[in-house]
Structure formats: structure tokens, C-alpha cells
Amino acid sequence: MRKLIVTEFLSLDGVMENPMWTFPYWNDEIAKFKGEESESGDALLLGRVTYEGFAAAWPNSKDEGADYFNNVRKYVVSTTLDEANWNNSVIIKDNVVDEITKLKQQDGKNIVVHGSGKLIQTLMEHDLVDEYRLLIYPLVLGKGQRLFEDDSNVKLNLVDSQVISSGVVALVYEPNRK
Question: First-to-last CA distance in the chain?
Fold first, then answer.
């Protein structure tokens, strides 16, 4: 069974929205952490907003991850998109939980979720997340979309942690399903 991995950039107060604030902290250690995610997966699961942002940015990018993002299989959860033209993209419109459960049961590597806050809320609600890979940045933004909403009740077990030289902390958690 494939793992579904949520990966996020978060401020200390849990904001994940529009993570342009992460750029000053980027270094080789963060690139390695993110590269391990890419190497472990052969599919992306994205909400519409994240998909549209990625589809606008990655095809013309010369950045290190461009080849991966442009060629990996992408599953887009959306009730409003009629077509997904970015290379290797498939839309999931209906029965989202059932479709994602089926994807997890297929052979293959991990399925990685970037951004996609509303989608992640659904995934957490249905206990479909197998791992959280979080980069916590040393700043407080005060407002914005958060990964864990006020009514979230998620119990996690710490699997790994690393302090990055730029002050970022990399944390890997698995759900505590006991």
C-alpha cells in the first residue's frame, strides 16, 4: 500500500498560505529534505488552487525540481476544473475519498501532497494521511490559512527531526492511530 504524505512549509503559528516568506531560508539542507520527498514519490495529489499555481510556474522553470514536477503523475481534486492540461495530470471530481483510497491501494511509490489546504482537511478528516513532513520557519505571520484548523484534533508521533542551519526545523510525523 502506498503512503500519502503531506508536505508543508509552516510559520511558527501554523500558517501555510502563500509561502513566499520561505525563500530567504532556503539552503542545501532544505533542498535535500525536499529532494527526499520527491524521490520517495511517483505521484502528486493537489487541490485546484495549488495545481493551478504549480502548472503556471513549473513548466517554464529551470529550478532543480522542474523535471520531477513536470513529469510526475498529478492527481487534481477539483469540482470546477474541466481539463488539466499540465503534463501527466488527471482530475478527480467525484467520490474523492474513495478515489484517493483506491490510489493508495495501488502499487507504486508514495503520493505526495503539497499546499492544498482544503484538500488536506478532507484527508485528515478521513484518516488518509500517513505522514506529515513539515518545515517550520522561525517567523510568526499572525494570519493566513493554517494547516491545522481550530477544530482539528490530530494526534501525531514524531518520527524524525532536524534543525536546519537557517533556523528552520524539519519535522516528520506519523498519525497516532491507537
Answer: 19
Domain 4-175: top CATH class = alpha beta
Cβ atoms of residues 117 and 145 within 8 Å: yes
Q: Which three cell numbers stand for residue 30?
A: 532544505
In this predicted model, what pLDDT tens digit does every residue of 37-60 receive, in sequence order? 999 999 999 999 999 999 999 999
pTM exceeding 0.90: yes
Q: Are 88 and 73 in contact (CB under 8 A)?
A: yes
**Secondary structure of residue 8 in the 3-state scheme:** strand
Interatomic CA distance for residues 34 and 106, integer angstroms: 24
Q: Is 45 within 8 Å of 122 (Cβ atoms)?
A: no
d(CA 21, CA 31): 16
